[in-house]
Predict the structure.
Amino acid sequence: MAIHEIQTASHGISPIIEFHLTHHRGLKKNPSMGADSISLKLNERRWLGIMGEVHYSRLEPSQWEQALAKMKAGGINIISSYVFWIHHEETEGCFDWTGRRDLRHFVKCCHRFDLPVIVRCGPWCHGEVRNGGLPDWVLDRHPRSLNEAFLSLTRKWYEQISHQLRGLLWKDDGPVMGIQLDNEYGGPAEYLLRLKSIARDVGLQVPIYTRTGWPSTSTIMPFGEMFPLFGAYAEGFWDRELTSMPGNYWRAFCFEPMRTDTQIGFDQLGPRDAKDDPDTPQYPYLTCELGGGMEQSYHRRIRINPRDILAIALTRLGSGSNLPGYYMYHGGINPQGRTPLHESQETQYYNDVPQKSYDFQAPLGSFSQTRPHYHLLRRLHLFLQDFGESLAQLSPAFPDRFPSDRMDTSTVRFALRGGTREGYLFVNNYQRGLSMPDHSNVQFEIQEPENNGHVRIPFDPVTIPGNTSFFWPISFNLQLATLCHATAQPVCKTRRGNRLIFYFAQTLEGFTEFVLQLAEGVTLQTDTDIIHLPDNRYLIRAQASHKPFVVLQNRQPQTLTVELILLNQAESLKLWKLPISNTDGDPSSVLFCEHDLWVDAEGNLCMLRETPLGETLTVDLRRPASPPGLPRIGSKGVAEPPDDSAWEVAGEYFIPLPVQLDRSRYLLRVDYIGDILRFYSREQLILDDFYHGDSVDLALSLIPENQDGVTVRVLPLHKDAPIFVPDRDVLFKDRDFVCDLLSAKLVKRQLEYPDPALLVFDPQD
């Protein structure tokens, strides 16, 4: 039997530091915003926010409301977005705040959904945009620096943003709670301080100013001026190596006290010490760039596994983060500009990304398609919404033994937040690209020196399955009892009259262990095995079901019933909790549905059925591919996409579309092999993709009704191209190059407005 020990974090050593935020109150409606060295606060109560990045200028305005509604249904309660200068002032003095560039309209949409906003206003954003978002004309004159001429132009830019956000700031009862200043800046702190001063001068007065916590500034940033926000990615497109999981990406799958991830921006920032600034622990642990997926670069194609994203989020939470912030949470498509608006080596940037697509393999794709990690994260977010206030106050503690290197599969990876009186044990037995083994006969012993106490969980040794990520509760408050511990993950709770229902998700195979300690006068009903332990405790071994396995009841001072429900993994991912009042007056309801659900701005329950149609569309080969040459090496030392003349060797296909098809309700889903795929409307490029093994979706609403089909061109990929591609050996086999459009199918998207009563779940029904 393997007993893994962990000692709770010491309390009372570091005093809690309060931040005195200006403009933290609204006129009438907004709650007061606060922060200390532990967490953000709303109305003096700890608030564990969940932030998702979506770029309004990469979506059509007609997409905004559904995108925001689905983000909110996924548990997001803060929206973050870059404001790309080049998207708005590509030509000097000619500002465009219309259509998909209408920042004001987008922020108003966020307000309709009661979603606070952090505006990431640059002037340099990156975001895989041309020049990092700086217009060509700015960059031609002045580099990003403390140069007064550059700062003067930045002031004019900030004035424009301020005008767009007038009346929408937190102090005005608007949604804008924060401003991010620049991005990934490693120069003197004075530059960021000047940006903050300019922002405040022009009216961008908000409670919170943020900066990315990587890299460290070259001079000391005065404490409390802006909150550093951190990140972690499963793997990055920006690395120079053409192998899987280079460098220290594996560390993001481990629990650790350090917040800085040195793999982020490795292309621009290079190798650097893995350390936090000395004052970092005095700030709350907030993140803005947990990888919600990954974009493609031409030289490096990453295919994300949905479990990558869950594991990253879980390890950061277990390490003490009190704001998971995802980049990206919703993908998009670059707008049309006078020049191509994507990052490229041709413009002296480090990578080439697709001209149009910025899907990012995000939880929500470019057309709001839900990916498996949307649901994995949604289940985690349900817990944070209901129990995040208590989690936020719990300090992290770490075991003495850390994995020795990326190939260490024998060390059990775990961390604790809290202790024996209240806590959560986080376990991550998953690492991208590495098959993790089962760990058998495992127990954890929590030692609490301050209280001379310890607890061993579970009651019986268990096997932790390979490639899983989860957390278990310790001394979890069930109102009528204390859940001493369980080998299940809490999901959410709901109230129906005098009934309080707690939902859990199964984490282990076979029986799930619950140890309950009942309050005085409480009765327990169960149909499963039960063992009476000392101190009025009960050991219950439960099996997954939609029916309660335990019912607790008391009658003093008033009747209350508490029900515990254990769901298997698949069923737990069908559980939704949405702001729809149930018949007992609870402001939210638990629903079960295998389709996507959300509540629109008018309060209507919406359901989207996405049904891939079985029939494969006809694909007409108009020109077969010819043998390609090898791609050139670009200015930054990696392969760059071929120029337009090379597309003469591309395979060309035409996909006729069925007549009388409501194109607003369909996606075209294409599977292919090759180098680059492009969709055209006549001769206008509307979407592209760098091959990485996944299918590609196109919303048929992008194809005008007067066109009877879609033209697709696929550039062949040479077997010796210096490009990292997943499963290269399988892809090429004995072939010198690959190029084929394998299949094209329609996906029907049927929007319905179901009766909530048909989906609201009541275990008594």
